[in-house]
Structures are given as C-alpha cells and as structure tokens.
C-alpha cells in the first residue's frame, strides 16, 4: 500500500465544530469559503480537460473536501516529524502521471486543481518520506496509525465519512441528517449482513 492510499483510506471524527468551518482537522480549520473556492477551481479544471463531474460518481464538493482534509492531516504529520520537501522533489512528483495518461489527469483524479498541485505534491512526497522514516514498507502500519491519530470533524452539512463505500453506496460522505445522526436507511446499510 502506498502513502497515497493511506491518505485516501483514513479519516474520522472526534472534536467540536467551528462556525463557518467545513471541517476542523487537528489544529487546522477548513472554511466553507475555502471549500467553495477550491471546488469552483476544481470544476473549472475538469471542464478545461473535457471531464464531467458526473464521471466522479460523487459530488465534486466531497472529493475536494476529502482532499483538503487529507492534505491538512499530512501537513500536520510532516510538521510533527520535521519532514522537509524540496521544490525539486515537488516538481518530480508533479510530473508523475500515476495510472493515468498525464500528470494533470492524475491530479484531477485525486481532487486536485492546478492551483493546489504544489501543496498536494509536497504532502505526497512528505508522506513517502515519512513512511521511509518509519521503516519503508514495514513503516506503512505506523504511517496509517499516525494518520488516523489526527481526527477531522466534518460540518454536519457535509455528513460523516462513509466507512464502507461500495458500488451501491459510492458516496465519500453519508448524510447525517439535521443533527448529525445517520438516517435509519444508512444505519441499516452499514449493518453486517448475516
């Protein structure tokens, strides 16, 4: 599993929400206005590359919010462990097409608009360095634990992180209803089938 897979797979909730925040991540606040601006930039980048939001399978706001949270957690871990990333390392990371035909499509697949590419590249390189610092492949579990130690709290307007995404329920976030409680349909969907 790569450091990027850790970023996508781990996030949870546990601290109070701040007014005007889309999420609070450790000691960082992601404002609803930041989320809106980033989502607009992301949608514009999708359109510029002749890609449609429908192809994401989930609303762009969810993709962008998840990325903002993951970048925030990664940045805080890099600070905690004094991990530094050079501009040259960021440049190299941003040239990687990943599993796609181009680096730009790779970034868009991860919810990253061109405006946010350097920040995203910095944390991806930083997480890779952190995994090496923790022992390479064997450090994956430690990296996962450290990532999970910073627990984001999402504004109920966006719901709660969906811990069991599936083809039937691909959403990144579940609607928690007016007071942050899962709806009965969602609670039933998450019950193990026996």
From TrEMBL:
Signal peptide: 1-19
Bias-annotated ranges (Low complexity): 182-194
Chain coiled-coil ranges: none
Highest taxon in the source lineage: Bacteria
Pfam families registered for this protein in UniProt: SurA_N_3
Chain positions covered by the region annotation Disordered: 159-194
Keywords assigned: Isomerase, Signal
GO molecular function list: isomerase activity
Protein name: Peptidyl-prolyl cis-trans isomerase SurA
Organism: Nonomuraea fuscirosea
């Amino acid at each position: 599993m790569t450091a990027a897979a850790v970023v996508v797979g781990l996030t949870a909730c546990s601290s109070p929400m701040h007014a005007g925040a889309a999420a609070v991540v450790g000691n960082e606040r992601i404002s609803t206005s930041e989320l809106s601006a980033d989502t607009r930039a992301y949608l514009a980048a999708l359109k510029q590359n002749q890609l449609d939001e429908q192809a994401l399978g989930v609303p762009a706001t969810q993709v962008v919010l998840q990325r903002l949270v993951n970048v925030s957690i990664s940045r805080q871990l890099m600070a905690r462990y004094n991990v530094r990333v050079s501009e040259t390392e960021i440049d190299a990371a941003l040239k990687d097409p990943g599993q796609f035909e181009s680096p730009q499509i790779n970034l868009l697949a991860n919810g990253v608009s061109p405006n946010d590419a350097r920040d995203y590249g910095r944390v991806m390189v930083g997480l890779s360095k952190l995994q090496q610092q923790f022992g390479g492949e064997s450090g994956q579990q430690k990296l996962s634990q450290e990532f999970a130690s910073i627990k984001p709290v999402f504004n109920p307007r966006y719901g709660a992180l969906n811990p069991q995404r599936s083809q039937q329920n691909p959403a990144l976030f579940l609607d928690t209803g007016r007071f942050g409680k899962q709806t009965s349909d969602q609670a039933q969907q998450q019950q193990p089938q026996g």
